[in-house]
Write a structure and sequence with these properties.
This protein is of the alpha+beta class. The protein is 22% helix and 29% strand. Strands 1-2-4-5-6-7-8 form a 7-stranded mixed β-sheet. The chain has a 7-stranded mixed β-sheet with strand order 9-10-11-12-14-15-16. It binds zinc ion. The site of zinc ion has 6 residues, from helix 3.
Length: 287
């Protein structure tokens, strides 16, 4: 069944693409407490398993009218069963991979670089320029960082490096808060990785912040924003960034979208007495 959903942000046509899902073992959650997790899941109307939590994976295509921009590319099929469907869902949505002008990355973890290229080094998006924060590119390709990783995490970095390599010579990097393409602004959200970046879409007085991996576990982290994942490069900074983002999104009633929020992953954040709560965006009719 194709997994795509089309909506509008001002005059920008946005297509949410479902890549699939993975299951995060509960042992990979920093701060985890089973009793609290069970009650938070219940309050969020989510099923609960003490073994692992399903984590959906999304990407987004933005047609700005001038450019076709893919934001994150999902997972490679090799990452596991249930993943690696973003490119087929892109095609199902009527978008030719050759028509993509820019692939913007929130960060370069394996579940975001997708099937950007095949094992032989052929590019899936033949006409696209790869864009990341400069810090993200450096972090992914830093051998000292690589050597400091637990041995079982290194193969994930190997795959990311291999998948982005065919785009390396023509890549573009950015730093800080800048217009990466007309109508899309980079918002540094460091912690999960040093170059982790959100992208704010602005068109015709409407906006949407695509916040990448501020949240991996939507049934748990809105209730317990201090819980993180073992893949957070700087757990303390990831926590602070998440809390600051929740504060801002709830205060400003911002529309946000996340790569690991239940498809299509678009919604709003409300403050509760103890923490926060996620509210899905209403369905949009076609234009
Ligand atoms: Zn991720």
């Amino acid at each position: 069944m194709p997994g795509f959903y089309r909506f509008w942000v001002g005059d920008f046509e946005v297509t949410a693409l479902l890549d699939g899902y993975t299951t995060l073992p509960t042992g990979f959650i920093n701060g985890y407490d089973e009793t609290l997790a069970r009650s938070a899941s219940s309050r969020a109307y989510k099923p609960f398993s003490p073994v692992g939590i399903p984590v959906p994976i999304n990407g987004y295509v933005v047609n700005t009218g001038r450019q076709l921009v893919l934001i994150d590319a999902g997972s490679p099929k090799a990452a596991g069963a249930g993943m690696g469907n973003l490119t087929s869902n892109l095609k199902a949505a009527g978008i030719d991979p050759d028509a993509i002008d820019v692939v913007l990355f929130t960060h370069l973890h394996i579940d975001h670089v997708g099937e950007l290229s095949d094992a032989a080094g052929n590019r899936t998006f033949t006409n696209a320029t790869l864009m990341t924060a400069e810090a993200e590119w450096e972090f992914t390709h830093d051998d000292a960082v690589y050597r400091a990783l637990p041995e079982n995490f290194r193969p994930y970095v190997d795959i990311s490096r291999q998948i982005v390599a065919p785009y390396a010579s023509e890549r573009q990097v950015f730093t800080g808060e800048v217009d990466v393409v007309p109508g899309i602004t980079s918002i540094p959200l460091p912690g999960h990785t040093p170059g982790h970046t959100g992208f704010a879409l602005h068109s015709n007085n409407e906006s949407l912040l695509i916040w990448g991996d501020i949240v991996h576990l939507s049934g748990l982290q809105f209730a317990y924003p201090d819980w993180g994942v073992v893949f957070d490069a700087d757990p303390e900074l990831a926590k602070r960034t998440r809390r600051a983002m929740f504060d801002r999104a709830s205060t400003d009633r911002m529309a946000v979208a996340g790569m690991h929020i239940d498809f299509p992953g678009i919604g709003y954040i409300e403050r509760t007495q103890q923490a926060f709560r996620y509210v899905s965006a209403p369905w949009q009719t076609a234009r």
